[in-house]
Design goal:
It contains six helices and nine strands. By secondary structure, it is an alpha/beta fold.
Length: 205
């Protein structure tokens, strides 16, 4: 089974007020790089495409890895446009499924992504397998190739919540017990909370 990965890193950081992916969680550990390096550990993702804005200097991007960068010139129009850029980049590889991940979730783990892929292998007729937060579907999400037309019809900043809530699609959510997994940095307060948690966790490891 071929699984492509789309790492959505083209957000405008409007609520943050500053480009957030270059913010450091700790010395040398930038927000945008952490989850990407974790996904790179999941060797089953091929290709792994990083979708970025045209004006991003990419100072947060690690110097090398098993990914390729795709510039989205319409990223300012919303999440759905960045997603379509990612889909256009991976579809020539004819993947069986596509993993969609957000770049501002530093606590995601390769092991949890692999659980999504394993679940899809066992039930190949699924439309999606989502990470679960108390039963609610959240990214990262693995979508079947049959869902590509549905994803391409999303508009503006609408995410996949409508898909999860619709009876028209067959999917599962796999709960992740760690509450930190779904932390994302939308605001400065969010980032400070994530940074504090990151530093505390680093001291314990």
């Amino acid at each position: 089974m071929l699984v492509a990965g789309i790492y959505l890193a083209a957000g405008q950081s409007r609520r943050m007020g500053t480009p957030k992916l270059s913010l450091e969680l700790s010395s040398g550990r930038k927000l945008g790089a952490v989850a990407l390096e974790e996904l790179a550990r999941c060797e089953e993702l091929s290709p792994l495409v990083v979708v970025v804005r045209a004006d991003d200097p990419l100072g947060w991007l690690p110097p090398a890895g098993n990914w390729r960068v795709e510039t989205c010139f319409t990223a300012s129009l919303g999440f759905s446009f960045s997603l379509r850029c990612g889909l256009n980049a991976v579809l020539p590889y004819n993947p069986d499924a596509v993993l969609v991940t957000l770049a501002d979730q530093p606590f995601i783990r390769a092991e949890s992504v692999k659980r999504l892929i394993d679940a899809f292998r066992k039930q190949p007729d699924l439309d999606y397998a989502a990470s679960g937060n108390n039963g609610a579907g959240m990214p990262p999400v693995l979508f079947s190739k049959t869902m590509v037309p549905v994803l391409e019809r999303l508009e503006g900043d609408r995410g996949a919540r409508g898909i999860f809530e619709s009876p028209d699609y067959r999917g599962i959510t796999i709960d992740v017990e760690s509450p930190e997994y779904f932390m994302d940095a939308d605001t400065e307060q969010d980032f400070q909370h994530i940074q504090n948690h990151w530093i505390k966790k680093s001291k314990l490891s």
